[in-house]
Write a structure and sequence with these properties.
This protein is an all-alpha fold and 76 residues long. It has helices at residues 2-28, 36-69. 80% of the residues lie in helices and 0% in strands. The radius of gyration is 17 Å and the shape is elongated. The protein starts with a helix and ends in a 7-residue tail after the last helix.
């Protein structure tokens, strides 16, 4: 469905921007880009962001399904 594809693309864009900003903050604090700690921190945050995106998409899918069944449904 086009609206879900667009929502997913927007969530992915925000996920990627947040991950980039986080990596820049780590580097600004002196993290070694080739270091294990940098990779571990980045990987952990990437997982958190992906979980956020996935949960948001699940909620949006449920809402779209509800709207197709009951056009007067609201998002809670």
């Amino acid at each position: 469905m086009k609206i879900l594809d667009e929502a997913n693309a927007e969530l992915c864009r925000h996920r990627d921007l947040a991950l980039t900003a986080y990596a820049r903050r780590l580097l600004a604090r002196g993290a070694d880009i080739d270091g294990e700690e940098f990779r571990a921190n980045l990987s952990k945050y990437a997982g958190e962001l992906e979980a956020w995106r996935s949960k948001a998409m699940d909620c949006l899918r449920q809402f779209v399904e509800a709207m197709t069944e009951r056009p007067s449904a609201t998002l809670h």
